[in-house]
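Troubleshooting entry. The earlier prediction with 5-O-phosphono-beta-D-ribofuranosylamine gave an output that would not parse, so I re-checked the input for stray whitespace and re-submitted. Clean input:
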Amino acid sequence: MTTRLAVLISGAGSNLQAILDAERTGALDVEVVVVVCSRPTATGVSRAERVGVPTRVLSLKVFRERGADRGDYDSAVAEALRPFEPELVVLAGWMHILGPEFLSRVRVPVLNLHPALPGEFPGTHAIERAHRAARQEGLARTGVMVHHVVAEVDAGPVVLSEEIPLDPEESLDALEQRVHAVEHRLLVAAIGQVIGQGQSKGRAHAVELPLGLTNVKQ
Ligand code: GRF
């Protein structure tokens, strides 16, 4: 059975594109039913529009200008998803921390993609920080992970992760391209795993799901 997917983005949307391509080719038995974007100027929205996926833009800046607080914004994001009845929510380059007002309203699994290994470089600019650590501290590897979202930033039960060797001589741009290539593949694989479409490359982690949630397909 096809899984209804909501994707949240904030930028160029190359990871969204990987999901849309997997839907189109049948690599994933999913239907992207809505794309929510946090930035009106983000180019990723056009990727959804091009294939007729409904989009919603919710700018925190605009909410704040109207006197709304963070909780209002988070619950508005959750309410934007409700009419589309997603069975799985994927944060694919979504750049806001989603708090209890969101997590308490969205009662389906919520996955996040983070360009670092579990427990490493939480927050923003993770690729840049790993690049600097390779040059300044001899860090040998970084990675990518897909995890279930919990209140703590870039933490929560990991679905899949994959290590990426670091080269202190490599440019940041080249490293970013290598990391994005792994992201596109690992995110699709992790979604496949959560919806019960079998094992895939990348280190699998036995997942204890957040309270009350089950894997999408038993
Ligand atoms: C990705 O590297 C993701 O891990 C990070 O933001 C980037 C988004 O890239 N949080 P894109 O918008 O999917 O191209």
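This one parsed fine. Residues 3-194 form a domain with the Rossmann fold fold (CATH 3.40.50.170).
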